[in-house]
Amino acid sequence: MYTREDKLSQRVLKAVTEADAPLETMEILEFLKGVTRTKVLYRLHNLRGEGLIKGKVVGSGKQAWIWWDAKLFENGK
Hints:
By secondary structure, the protein is of the alpha+beta class.
């Protein structure tokens, strides 16, 4: 998986996995100051495709997404 070599993907993954609750895309953008929404969404979708995180559309329009660690709700957490 190429994600290991991509520094931005690693920062995005860290933001999502260290959170105790699901995060909206805008909350992740606040954590990663200076990065465009397009770049972050691209990385989030790649991480989701690799199974490292999970995500769900929760709104219309610009399609608000929420993201969480794939292991966050395992084993009754």
